[in-house]
Amino acid sequence: MTTEEGPLEYPATRPPGEGERGRIALLLVALVVAVAVVGLAAWLVLREAPAPPQPEATPKPAPRRAPEARSAPSKAPRARAGEVEVSSSASGSVVFVDGRRIGPAPQTIGLEAGAHSVRVEKEGFQRFEREVQIVPGRTLQLEARLERALPSLTVRADVAGAQVFLDRKFLGEAPVTVRDVEPGRHRINVSAEGHEGYAEDLEITAGAREVVVSFKEVSLDESLAVKHKHGMGSCRGQLAATPEGLRYETQHDKDGFTVPFSALEPLEVDYLKKNLRVKLRGGRKYNFTAESADDLLVFQNAVEAARERLE
Fold first, then answer.
1. What number is the average pLDDT over the span 110-139?
2. How far apart are the first and last CA of the chain?
3. What is the CATH number of the domain that holds 305?
């Protein structure tokens, strides 16, 4: 580039002088010092700051102590067990041991050593019962041979102290039971003081038989065809006796009657005249005849015996 005044020249670059280099060094030193101061300050700040909280460790549960074992109460040593095998000659029989029902025979039962009661039963057979000794570790075999039971007879009565006889043999006072009665026909007699005796023929078969004697229960059912004699004439009818009293039934309504025994005098029989007299206490009198004087006498005896028991 030229001008009118002549060519333009750029000033030449000059190397830095000694003073300028000193200023640059001072700046560098100041920068280093500043960085050092900042670093030291930061270090001091970080040192004084509290440490961040550390997570707390979960405490481990204390180990549980095993419960102390309780000592079991001391027991007396049990006797070693043995067995008993029970069979029966009769099928369907039942086994009992020490009174406890076990079940149908045959049975094998484990038992403690020592004495035990064994019972075998079946209806219609005699009971089998034995006492056995159980030995530890051993099996006892027991066979129950059951025999058929003979019939039994029980006699009861409604009067205390009634005496019982079977085939004229005294059995005791009722109630009484006799076992092992031979099957067949037998005669039973029962008597009680102040009462008419009781007698019955019995057919004894297998099983149990019971007889109930009622002395206090009066049985009366007598009836007789009669003719009632009036002052003038007569009428025919039926004279009957029951525990309720005496009853005369006839077609003549005015002659019929029904009276309790308490309203009657004792009956009287004139055997030769074939006459039965019936008289009300303090009142009317009736005369009856029958074809047989014996029939009148039987009627009178039955009525008076029943009246005696009823009073």
1. 93
2. 188
3. 2.30.29.30
One domain, residues 168 and 237? no
Total structural domains within the chain: 3
Which residues form the domain of 293?
Answer: 222-310
Residue 38 φ/ψ, nearest 5 degrees: -65, -40
Q: Encode pLDDT of 283-300 as tens digits.
A: 889 999 999 999 999 999
In a domain, 40, yes or no: no
Q: How much is the CA Rg of the chain, to the nearest whole Å?
A: 65
Q: Rounded to the nearest 10 degrees, how much is the dihedral formed by the CA atoms of 221, 280, 291, 232?
A: -140
pTM of the model: 0.37
- Helix spans in the chain (H): 18-48, 293-310
Query: Is the domain of 179 the same as that of 135?
Result: no
* E strands in 27-175: 81-88, 94-97, 100-104, 107-112, 114-121, 128-134, 139-144, 152-157, 163-166, 169-173
